[in-house]
Amino acid sequence: MKRKTLSTIAVHAALVAGSIVTLAPLLWMVSASFMSSGEANTSPPPLLPGRATLDQYRELFVRLDLGRSFLNSALLATCAALLSVVVNAAAGYAFAKLRFPARGPLFSGLLAAMVIPGQVAMLPVFLLLRSMGLVNSYAGVILPGVASIFGIFLVRQYAASVPDELLDAARIDGAGELRIFWSIVLPLCRPILVTLGVLTFLGTWNDFMWPLIVLTDDTKWTLTVALASLSGEHVQDTELMMAGAVVTVLPALLLFLALQRSYIDGITAGGLKE
Amino acid sequence: MRGLSSWRAREARSGLLLVAPGLLLLSAFLALPVVASLLLSLTDFDLYAVGDPSNARVVGLRNYARLLHDPVFWKALGNTFFFVVVGGPLTVSLALGTALLLNHKLVRFPGLFRTIYFAPVVTTLVAVAAVWKYLYHPRFGLLNAALGLFGVGAIDWLGDPHWAMPAIVLMAAWKNFGASMIIFVAGLKAIPESLYEAARLDGAGPWQRFRLITVPLLAPTFLFVGLTTTIGYFQLFAEPYVMSGGDGGPMNATLSVALFMYKQGFRWWSIGASASIAFVLFAVILGATLLQRRLQKGGEA
Predict the structure, then answer these.
(1) Where are the domains of chain A?
(2) What digits encode the pLDDT tens for the residues A20-31?
(3) Nearest chain A Cα to B128, which residue?
(4) For the complex shown, is ipTM > 0.95?
(5) Of A69, B61, B252, B289, which sits 20 to 30 A from A248 (CA to CA)?
(6) How many CA atoms within 13 Å lie on the side-chain side of B44?
């Protein structure tokens, strides 16, 4: 009994210590964002603001117009999530349930293509977008990432559990295949579609490299690109940068907290890293 | 009978219709670009050719040969391997350690701890990289202040070429271990409790139960996590980009292969050379994948 108490304490001590270390960078980010300018750059570094102020946030939104980048990010992430859900759900369902020519070879092709790192395609994709006139456009940021092999696999796995009898019954009732997909399959697959939507939303919200390459006009920048540019110009303004970091990170964290189960199901199913 | 065959035809048509958007997009933005990239890597495609492709000439394998003689490329390759070989095991062991703790029967509120450990995974890399840049500050950074309590002298984490890459490894491990942890937790949950019960009845102690039940049954999960971490880490880009202001410094100490490729392509528009770097990276990742698959097969035999 005594040994059990001891190990309970030890396990919890380890978990709490780990939690403190894990959260420390994020807590300090929040704390420093409420400091007044220059306060963080003192020695020893203060953990809490002497007098909490919203100056940094005011500077970001009023003078630096970060609200615009915030809206760009929100718009792009929402569109990317919706498009990705529809496109990948259609393909995933078809691979799971419909017989069509070359289904096997096409699917093996997707399987093999999974080993290709996205970076290999980047330059030609940029040249392609350039020839289509999509450089410096929202479409240029979203389109290349809409179809995802991972997303198709995720939906296919889930759609396989939709009972064939249900689909056949709808066919006998005279429903067309597209109608079956839209009014029967999509609602039945809702949990996995939420997962896919959340993953895509956060992936787009957090993405940096591609919007950096595609968007040249600063009124179209996403939060990540605007923040990186800010960190170049305001490298000394620790408190301002931390406020910018909070504005960028917080929506992602809140969305994750709200839809935690869906997100984690996706990670566990596919084991992707980000 | 005619009804059935027209059904079949309709099913085939609808199937093709439903996969078409996804497959067309994947062809346009993945398959064709990869082929184009391979072809570009055999040319001297540069800024002039971006304006008018007829300015590009076929140079065979010259881009690849030049890479082999480029010390900067070897530096980038070495940095990337360092990141994979040091950062990979660090991330995976942090993930396994926390997963084992979380899976302990005595833990209260496992969901709360799981959420905390997972939080860095969903944060925006550009933003948390900015945070870590200040944590690493030689004079005002919290990390040096914390180390100072133990009598460790100030380290110029991002300014000193010896410390810059370890600093990036540390940040990446913090950011990523939660994702692998979740997969380990799922793997641990899938091990039937009855096996542990039976072993306990047979008189096996905690260490024996871990070694004889947990380790072998978790092995497939372990290899899966190892493989995805390795593949992901070979593509290291955004961390050094943000931490070094885009150039992989100091003195190329944080230049990764992907960052080198990016600079060649999008900064200097040496697209042919950049494509050849992409394919070397592809080959390295493919090699690592096959190696790990073989190890996995060997482990099962």
Answers:
(1) 59-270
(2) 999 999 999 999
(3) A245
(4) no
(5) B252
(6) 9
